[in-house]
Task: structure prediction
Amino acid sequence: MNPVERALVLLAAARPGAAAEELAALALGRRDAGLLRLRESIFGPVATAAANCPHCAAALEFTVDIALLATEAAPQDAGGPHRLAKDGFVVEFRLPASADLTAIASCAEAPQARQRLLERCVLETHRDGAPVASEALPEPVVAELAAQIERLDPTIDIQLDLRCAACGHAWPLAFDIAHFLWHEIDALARRLLGEVHTLARVYGWSEADILGLSIARRNYYLEMAG
Result:
């Protein structure tokens, strides 16, 4: 399962009534805002994460304010279309969605992926009233378009500012909520399976009976089983 598919599987759990096509068409900011709220509902508003300093390789543990990111994540006007005017060009565009990331996943080179994404997200382009193909847009216009998309949907690239306590080196670290949450849930599932195995072996209970226990009671039995 690729990263986009994982993100959509998680989002489907948060929005059980939504169609797959609807979820795939959500702007990335709205998608990730939903994942941030899902993470908050399962694990709480603060996450603990770890990284290694790229300068001295020291281990660094830090917290991430999930609740704050969820508040800031969703774009104010994701529906669009949005409009950019620069150097005589007028570009109507929409914000990238998961479906677009899936469409460019097969591109072998970054320039090819960039062009395909541009073709999908640019709805209409004119210069002095005449239509212009998206591939004909000059680099300054494309660069400004990318900057405007990032301003409209900052969750496309969440960067955490870190500083190493050992050497003082500061650097930005990309934070991908879908990747982070997927691994948190995987770790939780593995831990629960381990608890079920231990209690079933010791007491002979069924999986349903064990998972039906409150966390406090399950922990108490695990202590006695240990």
Q: What stands out?
A: The longest strand covers residues 46-52. The mean pLDDT is 92. The CA atoms of residues 8 and 23 lie 7 Å apart. Residues 177-203 form the longest helix (27 residues).
